[in-house]
Design brief:
- It is found in: Bacterial microcompartment.
- It holds the Pfam family EutN_CcmL.
- The chain has about 100 residues and is mainly β.
- The chain has a single domain, classed as Beta Barrel (OB fold (Dihydrolipoamide Acetyltransferase, E2P)).
- About 0% of the residues lie in helices and about 50% in strands.
């Protein structure tokens, strides 16, 4: 799994097969310190995330293992909205305490 920051959305009036009805968001991948990287992807949203949310992502064949994405043509799927991240006793991120 990877961390990402939702930075936008994709509007697509026509989608193939199992992608119909699924929201697609633009996600900027984050490193272990939750800092932005240069990698950005379009990701199928299975958890109703929104712009500004830090999310958990899975990719490759794992992206097709959720109930909504089974047999769908996706390589990146949002599978969770992050509430907090800590390392040892230090809180790196808390959802309602964005800096």
């Amino acid at each position: 799994m990877k961390f990402g920051l939702v930075i936008g959305s994709v509007v697509s009036t026509k989608k193939a097969g199992k992608l119909k009805g699924l929201k697609i968001l633009v996600v900027n991948y984050l490193n272990e310190n939750l800092e932005r990287t240069s990698h950005t992807s379009a990701c199928v949203d299975t958890v109703n995330a929104g712009e500004g949310d830090i999310v958990l992502l899975c990719s490759s064949s794992s992206a097709r293992l959720t109930e909504q994405t089974k047999d769908a043509a996706t390589d990146n799927t949002i599978i969770g909205i992050v509430d907090s991240v800590s390392h040892g006793n230090k809180i790196i991120y808390k959802k309602n305490s964005r800096s």
